[in-house]
């Protein structure tokens, strides 16, 4: 920010910093030129970054708490998919001058949402600039050496296991939802998704590969399948997805979608932030037991094949052709 708004900038930084607890593993935190962190001995660091853009990831009617929650949740979901434990965050915000966003009250509420998801995570620093609203987050997590779960490793015959339910956030975006309990539940999934941190950590040791479902089930499944053969001459893997097995919330069922509408939202809608895992059949029972310890429901939705394509099957074995495959930020014509 320019020097004329320096005092305001100081106040805004204070509105953020006052939410941060001191930590022995952050010898130098917010307020210096850079932060110093002290990682746990014998752990590997896992890093990720994601940003939120007004009009794309959220709209101006969202509360500051919701925006803070989402900014943290989308990043935590990526750490969850690596089976990592989140530890430190950096926050890089561009705020429009003289807007509601550049106020202590808005930042106060934003920070409450931002830090509501994980008690062990410490904000160590960041940056404030003036300009069109943009919220960038960097997260650093820790994992035991060689314990991170990657996207690669899926094998033919693996079962595809998904946490939670699918399509709720997409349902809330697809039509206006009311303030009755089911409408609120769907909107909650859109505005305040639950990153599956504990489930990701509990899945480690049981699964061949894992990814978080942010772009839509089919898009992220396709990433998982491609990663398995990325570095070899092996032909790409395929999968069969069974529509009748897609986990569906009560709220979603109550919305009165046709089957095809619901399946399309569940297959391609995105913003689910659930975990998709590939697991060999003999590991399924211990995996589900360990996920129960993490209070996470999970469902087998299909199986990996050598076929090279993803087939979506109805209860009679017929092929369902989805209206779109998923979300690609740079190929909007194919998606919208
Ligand atoms: Mg991801």
What does this structure look like?
The protein is α+β, with helices and mostly antiparallel strands and 336 residues long. The chain folds into 2 domains: 141 residues, PurM-like, N-terminal domain (60s Ribosomal Protein L30, Chain: A, 2-Layer Sandwich); 161 residues, Phosphoribosyl-aminoimidazole Synthetase, Chain A, domain 2, CATH 3.90.650.10. Helix content is 32%, strand content 22%. It has 11 helices and 10 strands. The chain has a 6-stranded mixed beta sheet, with helices on both faces. It has a 4-stranded mixed beta sheet with strand order 1-4-2-3. Helix 3 links the parallel strand 2 and strand 3. Helix 1 runs parallel beside helix 3 and helix 2 packs parallel to helix 6. Magnesium ion binds next to helix 2.
In a nutshell, what does this entry contain?
With 336 residues, the chain is of the alpha+beta class. It is built from 11 helices and 10 strands.
**CATH fold-level topology of the largest domain:** Phosphoribosyl-aminoimidazole Synthetase, Chain A, domain 2
Major sheet summary line: 6 strands, mixed
Name the CATH class of the largest domain: Alpha Beta
User: Within the largest sheet, what's the order of strands?
Assistant: 6-8-5-9-7-10
Radius of gyration: 21 Å
Overall structural class, as computed from helix and strand content, comes to: alpha+beta
Percent of residues in β-strands: 15-25%
CATH H-level name of the largest domain... which superfamily?
PurM-like C-terminal domain
Architecture per CATH nomenclature, i.e. the level-2 architecture of the largest domain: Alpha-Beta Complex
Q: Could you say how many structural domains there are in total?
A: 2
| Helix content estimate | 25-40%
Please provide the count of β strands.
Answer: 10
Task: Flag low-confidence runs.
Answer: 1-6, 331-336
Shape: globular
Number of helices: 11
Can you write the helix and strand succession as a string? Answer: HEHEHEEEHHHEHEHHEHEEH
Gap between N and C termini:
37 Å
Average the pLDDT over all residues and give the rounded result: 92
């Amino acid at each position: 920010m320019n020097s004329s708004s320096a005092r305001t900038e100081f106040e805004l930084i204070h509105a953020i910093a006052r939410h941060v607890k001191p930590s022995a593993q952050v010898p130098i935190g917010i307020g210096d030129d850079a932060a110093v962190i002290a990682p746990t001995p014998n752990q590997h660091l896992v890093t990720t970054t994601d940003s939120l853009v007004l009009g794309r990831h959220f709209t101006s009617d969202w509360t500051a708490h919701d925006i803070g929650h989402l900014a943290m949740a989308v990043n935590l979901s990526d750490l969850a998919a690596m089976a990592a434990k989140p530890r430190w965050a950096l926050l890089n915000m561009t705020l429009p001058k003289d807007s509601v966003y550049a106020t202590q009250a808005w930042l106060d509420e934003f920070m409450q949402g931002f830090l509501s998801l994980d008690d062990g995570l410490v904000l160590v620093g960041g940056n404030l600039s003036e300009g069109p609203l943009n919220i960038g987050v960097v997260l650093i997590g820790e994992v035991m050496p060689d314990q991170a779960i990657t996207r690669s490793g899926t094998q033919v015959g693996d079962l595809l296991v998904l946490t939670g339910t699918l399509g709720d956030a997409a349902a809330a975006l697809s039509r206006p939802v009311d303030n009755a309990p089911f409408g609120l539940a769907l909107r909650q999934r859109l505005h305040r998704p639950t990153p599956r941190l504990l489930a990701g950590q509990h899945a480690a040791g049981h699964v061949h590969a894992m990814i978080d479902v942010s772009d839509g089930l089919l898009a992220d499944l396709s990433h998982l399948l491609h990663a398995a053969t990325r570095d070899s001459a092996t032909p790409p893997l395929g999968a069969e997805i069974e529509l009748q097995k897609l986990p569906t919330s009560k709220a979603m069922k109550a919305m009165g979608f046709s089957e095809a509408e619901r399946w399309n939202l569940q297959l391609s809608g995105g913003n689910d932030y659930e975990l998709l895992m590939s697991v060999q059949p003999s590991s399924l029972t211990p995996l589900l037991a360990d996920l129960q310890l993490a209070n996470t429901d999970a469902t087998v939705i299909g199986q990996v094949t050598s076929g090279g394509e993803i087939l979506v099957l109805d209860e009679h074995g017929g092929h369902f052709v989805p209206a779109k495959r998923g979300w690609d930020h740079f190929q909007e014509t194919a998606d919208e």
